[in-house]
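Possible regression after last week's pipeline update?

I re-ran a chain I had predicted before the update to compare outputs. Posting the input and the new output here so someone can diff against the archived version. Not blocking, just want to make sure nothing changed silently.
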Amino acid sequence: MKKLLLFVVVSLFSTFITNGQKLTVMNDLESDNTDLDTEFRHSFDGGILFSFRKKFEIEDTYCTSDGTIENTKETTENPGVNYNSDLKGNYDVGDGYIYYKQRINTGSKIYRLSKQTLDLELFTIIDLPSNTFINDIDYYNGYFYYTVKSSLYRISLVNKEIELVSKLGFYEAKGVKVFKDKIYLLADNDDGNYGLFECTGTAASIKLIKKLKPFNGISDQTIHWFEFKDKLYFSLYFTTDEPGSIYFTDGTENGTGKLVDLHYNSFSDFYNLFKIGNVGDRFIFFEHVPDGGIVSVRLYGSDGTPQGTGELLPGTVLKFLSYNFEVVNNECYFISENTLYKTDGTKSGTVQAHSENIKEFNFLEETLYYVADDFSVYREDKDGNSSQVKYNGSSFTTYEKLFKSGNKLYFTSSISGDRRLIALEETSTNATVEPITNRILISPNLISNQLTLDESLVGYDIIVYDNFGNQKLQQPISQAYLDCSALPSGIYFAIFLDKKNNKIFKSNFTKM
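New output (post-update):
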């Protein structure tokens, strides 16, 4: 069955196609309230896990696979949201589930989301002493591996049993990352040095790759890992006055080294270093600058070598940085103080990308969507043509991020007094409109009340316009005819949208 583009207005949701966008609007998830917060949690295959929460109340958590109410459900498990207990990770291990880790005061919970049923269930609880936490977690050959204090553990996906793999460090083991079919970890050893280790899941396979630096007490910062040009990069911070550093490895001692030292005191309780994305043959990252709780950073570009790494805006601290960094045509876009920037990873290629103030943004392919000063949502194509995103003639306002999943953007807006979830996607209306020359799609061309459709169109969406371009009808095709009795006499054209094949076909007819 081809995916339908629904427009029939019912009590649950409606869809509207205009100006190159398809908007699906969900109804009545929550009554609007100034204290209502929306939290977009995770994306998967075009769907999202999200929640509504009123102040001082338990949140309601939902999951949607495509932004329609028929494929949206409230989850039976409510994992809760706060600084210490948000869901982390997004592990799709190929068994039909997506796994998440939640930090709690006495350890961690592992949840899993069924992509088929949209059920969120508690997979297992990792009990730990109070104020003891899992440092990192990753999946490898049927197990989730993680470190606690100085030891490496694993959880079986089959029987959920937890077992100790090995004690790694003398004081601290930190970070778990699967790379090139091996597990990489950071830990101190008996000679007082902090080093990079590898293993294949067993105690006997653990070996030291290289000592990195003397151990003076590891900080409680998250280790950031990322891959670039067949190497693994990672950050390392200590609780001393020395700066943090970024290292790289290809899995060998000679291929392991330091990329760059960062500034002193560049880590904080919330942020340290974060890799943004690849832009051609370079990558972008930032380091956090403590600034009274403001998200302030220095921006770097690198070709993966020490000599090819440096600040993109030397001496400039970017403030109020956005949380989304979108790479389009090998340029990375981001917001600082309501200004949209773009960078190709070089100093000369780091420039302001838009003249207007922008609060939030995202892209669908090369089309920019952004939230302006008045909180209205705008669409701007690659040629710079801009227009408001509207639904039934009215513009949207949103105070949330534009959250991307697959080929959709999700956001919320108040419509008729209720907070609605909106799913937006491009409809490829710029594609060539062409008739199907080897088949008659509709007949007769001159009708009285009924338009006969070819059976191959069942499952498509039909949109009917009058001769002045006004949309008169839109609905999914469920049978081989269309009732046109409500249409006045005149000339009409019908568009058939095959979303799967990304083509638009057009045919004309006249009603007597």
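Follow-up from reviewer: compared with the archived run. The chain has no helices and 49 strands. Marking as no regression found.
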